[in-house]
Design a protein that fits this description.
By secondary structure, the chain is of the alpha+beta class. The chain has one domain. The chain has three helices and four strands. It is rod-shaped and about 110 Å long.
Length: 163
């Protein structure tokens, strides 16, 4: 063996190594990595990066879905309040006529259905001027159809001016 200093033990004298290191060549430092070790480390690092990117993507998708759901829920609540506070349509109480309204906004279809409701009190008497309001929102989230609905009973004299 011919080392740069022409001494096979030059490396050991300059850099004493623990006894468990096995030297491959007297002139080569024992701390060198093999190609296999480097490739294995890169593979582990790559898998960690891919997992991290997948997790960040999942968080982003969940955040977007949550935001869209909350926007639809808020708009549905607003429509229900608006319809509930409107003065009653006398034509709706003249018979079994149901009024339906469809609104399309931002890729969401809102359907509002207002119909007379026959509700009886504990004495068996019918409560006059009651109606039910049902609002349904439908939209597409990716490839999946989503639906959210709300329903309420409204007594118009409760919201009449001066009451």
């Amino acid at each position: 063996m011919n080392c740069s200093r022409n001494d096979s033990t030059y490396w050991e004298r300059q850099h004493p190594a623990p006894s468990h290191w096995e030297r491959r060549h007297p002139c080569r430092p024992p701390s060198a990595f093999t190609l296999l070790e480097v490739m294995l480390a890169l593979m582990v690092f790559s898998m960690a990066v891919v997992a991290l990117v997948g997790a960040i993507n999942g968080i982003g998708n969940a955040s977007t879905e949550s935001r869209v759901y909350r926007e639809v829920e808020s708009r549905l609540e607003s429509l229900m309040t608006e319809i509930s506070r409107m003065p009653p349509d006398p034509a709706a109480f003249a018979g079994d006529r149901t009024i339906e309204k469809t609104i399309r906004e931002n890729g969401v279809e809102y359907r509002i259905k207002k119909a007379p409701a026959e509700i009886t009190n504990k004495d068996g008497g019918t409560l006059p001027e009651m109606y039910s309001v049902k609002a349904t929102a439908r939209w597409k989230e990716g490839r999946q159809n989503e639906e959210l609905s709300a329903e309420t009973l409204v007594y118009p004299p409760l919201y009449a001016p001066g009451s």
